[in-house]
Amino acid sequence: MVSEGDPARGSAQLDAVFAETVRRTGASIGALYLLTPDEALLRLDALCGAPAEFAAPWTRVSTTAPAPVAVAVREDRMVWVGSQDEMARSYPRTAVALPYPLALVAAPVTSARRWGALLLMWPATRPPYMTGRERGHIAASCGRLARLLEEFVEYGAPPSGDDEPRVVPVGTGRRAGIPEMAVADFAERLPGGSCALSLEGRFTYVSDGAGDLLGCPPGRLLGTIPWESLRWLDEPTYEDSYRAAVISREPISFTACRPPDQWLEFHLYPDDSGISVRIIPSGAQPPPLPAPSRSPGAVTPARAGRLYQLTHLAAGLTEVVGVQDVIALVADQIMPAFGAQGLVLSSADAGRLRITGHRGYDPDTIERLDGLPLDTDFTPAGRALSSGIPSFFADPQEMLRVYPDAPQVSGKRAWAFLPLIISGRPVGCCVLSYDRPHTFPAEERAVLTSIAGLIAQALDRARLYDTKHELAHGLQQALLPRTLARVDGLRVAARYLPATRGMDIGGDFYDLIPLDDSAAAAVIGDVQGHNVAAAALMGQVRTGVHAHAALGTSPDQVLSRTNRLLTDLAPDLFTSCLYAHLDLVRRRVTLASAGHPPPLLRFPDGDTRPAVIPPGPLLGIDPDAVFPLTEIPLTPGLMLAFYTDGLVERPGIDLDESIAHLAHHLGQADDADLDLLIDELLRTAGAAGQRTDDLAVLVLQDEALHAGASD
């Protein structure tokens, strides 16, 4: 039981269950992600089997990201990736920043509510599949974690308030009984040198032989990181070998030259407790490397961790779509990666800096900074943009010397002003700020400058996309009915959802047309494609149908005349359409179809089935096509659900099976509120998430029974 208001004890209990899960599953690395209160992000809460630095690109993951942990939470399912090839195919962004042979599973941690996800990783030597027993054990462990999290909330003890992820030891307890001196003597008797590294990369043991080969006394090396204490190992390739050993848990070897010409072989043997390293003189001298071209004062190469962080962020920036997506990615990934607490992203517009997004600033400050001229002396943003040179200020004193008013505006204590420039054209400025003084080493400045170029490219693409999207959205809204017409005797509701890929525009349409006091027409259709051309043709089809329907034309003739219009236009796009004439006096519904999926009929007793309608051909193919009529009785309380194929078509699933599945859920849905009923249909059909096609839904229900009940 969790004690009331004891976060430390709560985290300790959670860590114990988490570590036990990693140990019992045989995983080499484990990570526990928890949802933020708004459920927009997954925050890394605890890590096991690797240093926290390794997880820098993934400390915060958007729940919409194409990453295994996000998919596990978003779709509430276990995600298994059995190999690096499978990772590259299914999750290319993750594969870029994790280029090691491994297998992993991401499992949702859920109970009555969503809590987060558990990530487990194994070396690639394990079988590339999971057994039912393994899945069951992982699911049970996720259940235990969820129950603990529920107890924390119930007793007022949040599971963790840490900003940084906790590194949890596996706690295997091995080798506890081996005398330390015997181990040291054993290592000293071996030829060459022996040393040990922790999973964090620090020396925990160095033999005298290793000290001789490395050119440094063992006592000076203990507790240090090799590429920091031995400058000749300060190359990303050597650090990457260590990272590969930790993540893959497989032996790794590499050769390095100790100046001036002593070549050494390093053999790394990792396990869950650390890395054993054997160092021996190389038997054959490798070809000499080109002499370094940089001067002694030049910038040192970026750490391997920073390079992977950069490639991960670069991959993320290539996938963002709109300006707000760019802002969210910079705020959720780049800010935490560099420890910043504030962000201002502005764009150059008519000689001024317009703030397009921000984090960590109060509205009054943003109001003062928004719209400043590019040549302002109020902040360094304008000068950085006009010169194209980034500016870094480690503390307020540095800023005060040049910009005396700037620190007083925001109260921040350190700043990085990164100009966003494409081919010499200023796009905007990205400002990262800190609540405390912050030094900017040369390595960090180089990485931030590189990221600024990526942000500039992404922001420029995003602005272009947003402009096109606004145009497309306006066109779409103009072509679809703003509101459904009111028809006495009918309850109505409709929904249009664009494809989630593309321009958020398509050719699906619907309409409800009052004909007189006792009749109405309902129409739904789907123009091939989801682009501007499809939307333009959709407008022509809808106008044609509306015009012919207003004349009181029968359903088959409405489709025939619209079909002849389209064949005359020769648009090279085909259209499906379903037209229904509802006679509220004679209580009849007359339908005609041009290759459109049949509507669903739900009767008052809940019996739901597709209507049997012989379809005619698609519109725009044969000018002499015939569209057969079908007539059904309009019984009291009858519901008709019209839809486009975007609601039912799924890869690998038979269309008739999908329609039957939709009919089953429609029969069980609560019809008290038709808008909520449509929400339920979209959810059960899986249309509320990613969609490759747009869709439209139109639901009509005779309200005779509902009117009688209200009386």
TrEMBL record:
<dbReference type="InterPro" id="IPR001932">
    <property type="entry name" value="PPM-type_phosphatase-like_dom"/>
</dbReference>
<dbReference type="Pfam" id="PF07228">
    <property type="entry name" value="SpoIIE"/>
</dbReference>
<dbReference type="InterPro" id="IPR003018">
    <property type="entry name" value="GAF"/>
</dbReference>
<dbReference type="InterPro" id="IPR013656">
    <property type="entry name" value="PAS_4"/>
</dbReference>
<feature type="domain" description="PPM-type phosphatase">
    <location>
        <begin position="487"/>
        <end position="702"/>
    </location>
</feature>
<feature type="domain" description="GAF">
    <location>
        <begin position="322"/>
        <end position="469"/>
    </location>
</feature>
<protein>
    <submittedName>
        <fullName>Serine phosphatase RsbU (Regulator of sigma subunit)/PAS domain-containing protein</fullName>
    </submittedName>
</protein>
<keyword id="KW-0378">Hydrolase</keyword>
<dbReference type="InterPro" id="IPR000014">
    <property type="entry name" value="PAS"/>
</dbReference>
<dbReference type="InterPro" id="IPR029016">
    <property type="entry name" value="GAF-like_dom_sf"/>
</dbReference>
<dbReference type="InterPro" id="IPR052016">
    <property type="entry name" value="Bact_Sigma-Reg"/>
</dbReference>
<dbReference type="InterPro" id="IPR035965">
    <property type="entry name" value="PAS-like_dom_sf"/>
</dbReference>
<dbReference type="Pfam" id="PF08448">
    <property type="entry name" value="PAS_4"/>
</dbReference>
<dbReference type="InterPro" id="IPR036457">
    <property type="entry name" value="PPM-type-like_dom_sf"/>
</dbReference>
<dbReference type="Pfam" id="PF13185">
    <property type="entry name" value="GAF_2"/>
</dbReference>
